[in-house]
Amino acid sequence: MRFRAKSLYILVLTFLCLAAGCARDDEYDLDKIDKELTLFEDEFAIPLGNLGPITFRDLIGDIIGQLMDVDDEGNLWFKTDRDIYTVSAFEIASKMENPDTCRTWRPADQQVSVSFIGSILRYVGVKCLNQRLVVYLENPLKRAVDIDTDVKVSYLDEDFDEAEVAASHISSTAWSLSETEIAEIAITDDILYGIDKISLENISFGFPEEWTKYIPENANSHFTFRLEYECNIAFAGSFHLTQAFNLKKVKLGLGEFKVKECDITADIENSFPVDLTLNSLQVYTDSLRTQVDENIVIEQNIHVAPGYRVDPSRTPVVFHVKALEGTIPDITGLRLDVTFKVPDESMIDPIHMDQGISLKNISAKVTGGVTINLNKGKDEDEDAE
């Protein structure tokens, strides 16, 4: 937020200039006048600008946000990759009775969770759209290797029971000294929960003749199955989240006006398909936002209607800000505790990067007048001398 009181200063300076023009002797020397003035004692509105938007990335935090990507169209994607199974070619050879003549090897079945972050998103009701799962095999040999395996993919349904997404048989060739895509798993659009597990069963490696001669000695010697998973993020009916977070780029320049209390009015523009209840709003006393200013109390009763990217909702709100002792200082940091909830009838669309919550047309309505200290420049000059 940014406060601009240029017009107020112009008004005061004009008053002083007129007074200077009427001065006729040293008795009216303006340098001897205390130029701390209280104006607009009945009521005065100070424009404070806009704030936001606060986006989805801001709400979920930096750690999870690092796993979010934005495509060219501005849609948010959750992406992850991890190893399913890795084994050294030397280890395989050591388990064979005669590795020079044995060309087939069958390891145990392998299973891995796709992502614990996906489970967290599921827990708070975030849905997954346009899911894509790809399996790769890295082959360290200097020759191609045939691979056969059954792939099973599962998720947790609405009752948190394991349900199968897809099952297929892979018969492919992993090219030498490279990573080869061996399967892309089809996930239908009606599955809105993120993938939970992937299993490789009945794995069979088919090696070339005298395959141990083609194992690199001074480089990576591991066969590695790896998965890549991605999906769009969407809010849907069961989404419910209470989150506390900080607003960093805040600048409410109220300190110089020495007001004890004021009403801050704004329009909250919401392009998220969620309704919002503000549980509490507190002021930080330091730029590091580690200490809440208990002397400043903000009273509010705010509920914001859901909106959409193409049709944001607009809700007028009022915050009553009061200093228990002294006057309200400049406000440079805020801590909010907010509950978000998605109505059951909401459309399920991917979250877009520019969707968020903004405060528009913010202004502070002050009763009892504002005080302007025009001695500031003079005092600084005297200190310098």
Key terms for this structure?
mainly beta; 21 strands; about 15% helix; elongated; disordered N terminus
Detailed description of the structure:
This protein is mostly beta strands and about 375 residues long. The protein is built from 6 helices and 21 strands. The strands form 5 sheets. It has a 5-stranded antiparallel beta sheet. A 5-stranded antiparallel beta sheet has the order 3-4-12-7-10. Strands 5, 6, 8, 9 and 11 form a 5-stranded antiparallel beta sheet that branches. The longest helix has 17 residues. The two termini are about 35 Å apart.
Give a short account of the largest sheet: 5 strands, antiparallel
Low-confidence stretches: 1-25, 380-385
How far is the N terminus from the C terminus? 35 Å
**Number of DSSP E strands:** 21
Shape type: elongated
* CA gyration radius, whole angstroms: 32 Å
Order of helices and strands: HEEHHEEHEEHEEEEEEEEEEEEEEEH
User: Given the helix and strand composition, which structural class is it?
Assistant: mainly beta
Number of alpha- plus pi-helical segments? 6
Please indicate the percent range of residues in DSSP E strands (runs of 2 or more).
over 45%
